[in-house]
């Protein structure tokens, strides 16, 4: 997931990121690459000191849909928090930060997609759908704390469809 999303990286950087707390990070990387490529048939490629993923991440497709303002498609692609259940705490602070930053950033973009779609629906008079998107934006896990402006947008959507969350 990391290489697929971040692109080509040096062996030393990847070893440090994933095995920086071990005695020999490069050995940890070698063993992991052997196992990964055995099980996933060339998922990670190496040339000299560079590594890159040969598999696409669904996150790339999600980001592309968001960039192209295809909000319905983006929301359909979003299956929940990024790498939910994966605990990077024992893999080092930098990797843990990357995981949580990526998770929060994607959730923030999905919240915005719900809000934009909900506002479109409200303008079209479909207040029930607008409120559903407001609820989804309000209840989205791992998104950062909403700003007062974002809370106002959520509230207006919730209120438009008489959502029970409007009083929360």
Helix proportion range: 55-70%
* Mean pLDDT level: 90
Give me the oligomer status: single chain
Class inferred from helices and paired strands: mainly alpha
Weakly predicted, low-confidence segments: none
Discrete helix count: 8
Separation of termini? 37 Å
| Overall geometry | elongated
Strand and helix layout:
Elements (H helix, E strand, L loop, with lengths): L1 H5 L2 E2 H9 L5 H16 L3 E4 L2 E4 L4 H10 L3 H7 L15 H31 L3 H13 L8 H13 L8
Antiparallel strand pairs: 1-3, 2-3
Helix pairs in contact: 2-3, 4-5, 5-6, 6-7, 6-8, 7-8
Search tags:
168 residues; mainly alpha; 6% strand
Summarize the structure.
By secondary structure, the protein is mainly alpha-helical. The protein is built from 8 helices and 3 strands, in the order αβααββααααα. Helix 2 (11-19) crosses helix 3 and helix 5 packs across helix 6.
Structure description:
It is a single chain. The chain has 168 residues and is mainly alpha-helical. Helices cover 62% and strands 6% of the residues. The chain has helices spanning 2-6, 11-19, 25-40, 58-67, 71-77, 93-123, 127-139, 148-160; strands spanning 9-10, 44-47, 50-53. Strands 1-3-2 form a 3-stranded antiparallel β-sheet. Helix 2 crosses helix 3.
């Amino acid at each position: 997931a990391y290489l697929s999303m971040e692109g080509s990286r040096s062996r030393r950087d990847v070893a440090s990121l994933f095995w920086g707390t071990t005695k020999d990070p490069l050995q940890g990387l070698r063993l992991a690459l052997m196992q990964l490529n055995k099980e996933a048939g060339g998922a990670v490629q190496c040339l000299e000191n560079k590594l890159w993923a040969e598999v696409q991440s669904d996150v790339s497709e999600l980001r592309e849909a968001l960039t192209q303002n295809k909000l319905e498609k983006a929301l359909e692609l979003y299956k929940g928090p990024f790498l939910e259940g994966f605990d990077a705490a024992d893999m080092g602070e930098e990797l843990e930060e990357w995981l949580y930053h990526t998770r929060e950033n994607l959730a923030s973009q999905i919240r915005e997609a719900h809000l934009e779609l909900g506002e479109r629906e409200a303008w079209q008079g479909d207040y029930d759908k607008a409120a559903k998107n407001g609820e989804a934006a309000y209840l989205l896990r791992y998104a950062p704390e909403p700003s007062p402006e974002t809370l106002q947008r959520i509230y207006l959507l919730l209120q438009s469809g008489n959502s029970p969350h409007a009083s929360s």
